[in-house]
Amino acid sequence: FSDQNSKRIVMALQSGLKSELTWALNTLTLLSFKEKEDSRKDSVPLAKIPGVLDSLLTMVLHHFLLYVESF
Q1: Crossing angle for the helix pair 52-69 and 18-37, nearest 10 degrees?
Q2: Does residue 16 contact residue 24 with C-beta atoms inside 8 Å?
Q3: pLDDT in tens, 9-68
Q4: Do the beta carbons of residue 46 and residue 28 sit within 8 Å?
Q5: What pTM was estimated for this model as a whole?
Q6: H/E/C letters for each residue in the chain?
Q7: Are 27 and 35 in contact (CB under 8 A)?
Q8: How many CB atoms lie within 10 A of CB 43?
Q9: CA atoms within 13 A on the CB side of 67
Q10: What's the DSSP call for residue 41?
């Protein structure tokens, strides 16, 4: 898994665009299953992708605040 792919996932999460968010979440889901099944040397644990956790938490917080404000 290349550094360029890691950056693309983070950028997609930060973009806020529905299609990009869908792609990033689908990719992270597939990688999480692949990570469990595949112990190849070239695989990168999701926890080691710089910025992915911050981007995910920011996205969740943003959508949570939108949900709360709708009441």
Answers
A1: 130
A2: no
A3: 999 999 989 999 999 999 988 888 765 666 555 566 777 888 999 999 999 999 899 999
A4: yes
A5: 0.74
A6: CCHHHHHHHHHHHHHCCHHHHHHHHHHHHHHHHHHHHCCCCCCCCHHHCCCHHHHHHHHHHHHHHHHHHCC
A7: no
A8: 13
A9: 6
A10: T
CB distance 30 to 19 below 8 Å: no
**Which two structure tokens, joined as six digits, stand for 55?**
């981007």
Residue 30 host element (H or E): helix 18-37
Query: Are the beta carbons of 14 and 55 closer than 8 angstroms?
Result: yes
Both tokens of 7, joined, read 């950056």
Helix or strand holding residue 31 (H, E): helix 18-37
